[in-house]
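TASK: fixed-backbone design
INPUT:
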């Protein structure tokens, strides 16, 4: 029997690793949970392995001499006391805080105030609405406190409001005898489902929930500059709390429709502008569309395809600022005509001949310079 293999750890495992492995294995094979015929025996082996490896003295002897070494040193590896192992932190969360005498028991008050659940609502807005913000009416469905019972969930005229099975605790204890001793597990009361209240005395309107589902219209303010996927918290518009607890919150998730004309990165806007070859060669002034309206833009002479022009301060307003804005970047697309009229073709050919003549003249000048330099 290899204790390290039983726990599934390496031989150089730390105490924390050993404890963590024991926690996982013990939960898996505890007889109250695992009904396999060999579960109790495996659980016992896990306990023996943990008892040895968690003790520095025993672990050193085991590493050097194995189980025989433990026997020779006066330790009986076949007889261990689970009571020597602190199980409170290992099983408290698993068994609801009640494991034998190691834990203080379950102390939750089922009638204590409990915060309501948060809700999520996804909405879609236009590209420009995200840029400049808006007020929007939305419709939600959530739980509101039952007015009939004042959110207690109980009939006002009921006499026996406490659950007779758990006496209002909301939990019941169950003791199980195993080869390791007596184990006590704490579970939700099956009669009242953990409320501690008598189901026969539930409010007729909300059926003991203390809240009823209602539809509600609310107005939210979406700030300018908000981005796709952003979440907005609307306080106290989630589900009503239990036993007088406060309401949860509503989280509104913003989905922004894409624009056919603009792209956005942060607070900057990107678009394209198509120009002709002549505009690129000679330069020009054009009107471009921005999110703020049309704006003039100067196209310099000799503009190349994919050149970028920047319109400063023509982007998206910053969140929380009315004065700061991003930039608008315009990418130039030089459009080459696919068909020409006879007059256009004639002019282009004349320009082409002139261009070739200038190139030839420049080549001649370069040849003369090279000759003069002796090259």
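OUTPUT:
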């Amino acid at each position: 029997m290899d204790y390290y293999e039983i726990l599934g750890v390496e031989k150089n495992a730390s105490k924390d690793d050993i404890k963590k492995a024991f926690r996982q294995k013990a939960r898996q094979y505890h007889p109250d949970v695992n009904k396999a015929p060999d579960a109790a025996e495996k659980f016992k082996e896990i306990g023996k392995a943990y008892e040895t490896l968690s003790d520095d003295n025993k672990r050193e002897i085991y590493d050097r001499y194995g189980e025989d070494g433990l026997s020779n040193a006066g330790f009986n590896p076949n007889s261990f006391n689970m009571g020597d192992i602190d199980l409170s932190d290992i099983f408290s969360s698993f068994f609801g805080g009640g494991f034998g005498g190691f834990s203080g028991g379950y102390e939750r008050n089922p009638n204590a105030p409990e915060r309501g659940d948060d809700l999520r609502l996804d909405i879609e807005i236009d590209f420009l609405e995200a840029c400049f913000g808006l007020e929007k009416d939305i419709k939600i469905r959530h739980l509101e406190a039952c007015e009939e019972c004042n959110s207690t969930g109980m009939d006002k005229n009921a006499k026996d409001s406490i659950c007779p099975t758990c006496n209002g605790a909301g939990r019941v204890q169950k003791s199980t005898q195993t080869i390791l001793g007596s184990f006590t597990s704490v579970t939700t009361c099956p009669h009242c489902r953990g409320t501690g209240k008598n189901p026969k005395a539930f409010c007729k309107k909300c059926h003991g929930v203390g809240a009823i589902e209602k539809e509600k219209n609310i107005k939210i303010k979406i700030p300018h500059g908000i981005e796709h996927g952003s979440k907005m918290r609307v306080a106290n518009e989630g589900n009503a709390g239990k036993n007088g607890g406060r309401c949860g919150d509503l989280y509104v998730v913003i989905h922004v429709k894409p624009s056919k004309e603009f792209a956005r990165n942060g607070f900057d806007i990107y678009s394209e502008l198509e120009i002709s070859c002549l505009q690129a060669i000679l330069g020009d002034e054009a009107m471009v569309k921005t999110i703020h309206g049309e704006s003039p833009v100067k196209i310099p002479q000799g503009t190349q395809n994919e050149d970028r022009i920047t319109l400063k301060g023509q982007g998206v307003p910053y969140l929380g600022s009315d004065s700061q804005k991003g930039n608008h970047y315009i990418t130039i697309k030089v459009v080459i005509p696919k068909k020409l009229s006879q007059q256009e073709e004639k002019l282009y050919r004349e320009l082409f001949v002139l261009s070739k003549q200038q190139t030839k003249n420049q080549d001649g000048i370069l040849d003369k310079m090279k000759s003069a330099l002796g090259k």
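COMMENT: The radius of gyration is 39 Å.
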